[in-house]
Amino acid sequence: MSRHLRLGVNIDHVATVRNARGGPHPDPLRAAKLAAQAGADGITAHLREDRRHIRDEDIARLATGIDLPLNLEMAATEEMLAIALRHRPHAACIVPEKRTEVTTEGGLDAVGGFAHLERFAQELGAAGIRVSLFVDPEPAQLDAARALGAPVVELHTGAYCEAEGAAREAELERIVRAAAHAEAIGLECHAGHGLSYETVGPVAAIPTIVELNIGHFLVGEAIFGGLYSAIQRMRACMKQARGIVGA
Ligand SMILES: CC(=O)[C@@H](O)[C@H](O)COP(=O)(O)O
Ligand SMILES: NCC(=O)COP(=O)(O)O
């Protein structure tokens, strides 16, 4: 196993704060550059169809303005496919979207949506973009991702983070099993959604997970101690869980 666990910092909610006043501040690109200085391995941005946070011009600026790999989260729509093909991010993570949801409520249904997703996975992959599917930790979903030719899955950790006590342990067990299944069938395994200092450790300790994407909690913590320090503390939690000395 690779002991280094990559941290992708999701800067969506910097844009949420910016959009509250309609001006340019705070700038997600500036946040992305700061995240790089603080030790992020990548930047994640979700261009929602309703543009509630990240906007088209943010993706254009991130695609050329940062030295880190950009992971574009996108719904499987023609509009988003065209944007991804125009900007050619390092990776594209296909996510489900419901217009009225407060946040991404669950994973993509790669089994039921197989026929629809096939062309998106194929066209993104053919353009040299690393395709990832954001799925619930269910083996059948991983099998479908594999059959679609996606090299990567990102396991939705929202249910684990929201649960408490025995229910959280059960959700963690689902993630552990799914991560093992991902490795068994040759998929690179990422995880994310809702992770915090409190919840990150057990997920970071799963040896077959190689990347975590974390956003909302870090941006929230930035209010109290700054983004740089929030990222560094998250990084330390991840290293500690991975057994890296000096965390
Ligand atoms: C897919 C995912 O987990 C993130 O992109 C997250 O959804 C971003 O925040 P919102 O769900 O609030 O848009
Ligand atoms: N794909 C998950 C992600 O990018 C970050 O989710 P969150 O930490 O903002 O909930």
TrEMBL record:
Site positions (Transition state stabilizer) are 154
Q: Tell me the keywords, alphabetical order.
A: Cytoplasm, Pyridoxine biosynthesis, Transferase
The EC number(s) given in the record are 2.6.99.2
- Subcellular location, in the record's words? Cytoplasm
| InterPro entries found in the cross-reference section | Aldolase_TIM (IPR013785), PyrdxlP_synth_PdxJ (IPR004569), Pyridoxine-5'_phos_synth (IPR036130)
Pathway given for this chain reads: Cofactor biosynthesis; pyridoxine 5'-phosphate biosynthesis; pyridoxine 5'-phosphate from D-erythrose 4-phosphate: step 5/5
Q: Where does 3-amino-2-oxopropyl phosphate bind?
A: 10, 21, 194, 215-216
Record Gene3D superfamilies: Aldolase class I (3.20.20.70)
Which residues are responsible for catalysis? 46 (proton acceptor), 73 (proton acceptor), 193 (proton donor)
What CDD domains does the record tag this protein with? PNPsynthase
Q: Which reaction does it catalyse?
A: 3-amino-2-oxopropyl phosphate + 1-deoxy-D-xylulose 5-phosphate = pyridoxine 5'-phosphate + phosphate + 2 H2O + H(+)
What enzyme category does the UniProt record give? Answer: transferase
Q: What does this protein do?
A: Catalyzes the complicated ring closure reaction between the two acyclic compounds 1-deoxy-D-xylulose-5-phosphate (DXP) and 3-amino-2-oxopropyl phosphate (1-amino-acetone-3-phosphate or AAP) to form pyridoxine 5'-phosphate (PNP) and inorganic phosphate.
Quaternary structure (record): Homooctamer; tetramer of dimers.
Give the protein family. Answer: Belongs to the PNP synthase family.
Would you tell me the protein name for this molecule?
Answer: Pyridoxine 5'-phosphate synthase
Gene behind the chain: pdxJ
